[in-house]
């Protein structure tokens, strides 16, 4: 990996284009290096993972609305949309599938200086691959780039510190991945990256306070913008530049300011793209920093015994967990029994309480209004707080995989005065966890989440095709989706009509 120092440059400075971060990223995207076998295998795992959570969310209102918007834009050759037949304009297919993948907060994750769900790259890159008639090998190359660029940006550039939503790293990565997929030249990819970043910077209010369905829509919007940015760049349209380093660019006014400097690692010429191997998926449908606490709660419940005897629980954890999903956020909504699913998903206090009571976690039942409003749950929930621990913060930011941690130490004080303490650094499903996910677990997750949604024969067909993704020929990528019956779609809520 080669590290690039990135900072603001005054307009009067001599700052050649080939030193711009967007150009460096475009060079990575256009490097014809082969995709390693383990990277390609993991890409297939994540395509399965995305389809799993899309199936589970298919009839939820935000997903149904996004799908209806896509269905209003039929197009040939076009791209597929989860759940329905037909082909649709690729940017709208990317939009609908992006919402389906993101709605339940249940696919893959990478956390470093920033946090991310790099599986959000799959819907836009796959949609363009289907529309453009590309092969499975082309798709895997494009996805390897998308993952690489988003993860490398996440390693280096913190967005949430400046209240910028993490999808600001997704627009450029998806544009770069599409560039690799299509075999575009460096100049075209450079312009697309600049446009994609410029149109996908927004504040973090989408993940603050009363969290709405836009939390799922935001990454889908970034993917849609990436598709449109590539289309414009192919037509010869340019982008603001230098987009990151300009005097009025992203770093100067949205991030650390004119004096800030970021060290961004990127693969050198001829170096394989392997970043996807550093990311990890979720066993539980909850914010990633909740994964280890859920497993910890399940482990501790037998030692605690009678939960009515709990006086208080303190989760000692990282700064990020404390201020984003803990009591350090100062969000009263995180203790509201009538809060939205999206808000409950971002309350580690609620999540720990339910996991401690139930000994399990379910993507629907654990968030149901009647579950959140149970009096004994509300009582326990309000006994839980978080506290920042410098050691957990250090481990959160560690670059050493053996030290990096996203967990917590739980101190449960009983009414008797006894204190029960346990900790868990990483989730069981993490590559270094107690039960790491491999192909078998990805398939099992798909089977569980697609049960009752997609017919068994359609599940079998999809799993057969996706595991042969690398061998799919041009024009065969439309098989990388699934359909459901009208009876399943009828479970979706009645929707008001929009503009189209």
TrEMBL record:
It comes from the Bacteria. Its EC number is 4.2.1.3, 4.2.1.79. Residues 284-468 form the MmgE/PrpD C-terminal domain. One of its GO terms (molecular function) is 2-methylcitrate dehydratase activity. Residues 20-262 form the MmgE/PrpD N-terminal domain. Pathway: Carbohydrate metabolism; tricarboxylic acid cycle; isocitrate from oxaloacetate: step 1/2; Organic acid metabolism; propanoate degradation. Keywords: Lyase, Tricarboxylic acid cycle. Belongs to the PrpD family. NCBIfam families: PrpD_hiGCgrampos. Monomer. This is Aconitate hydratase. It comes from Rhodococcus triatomae.
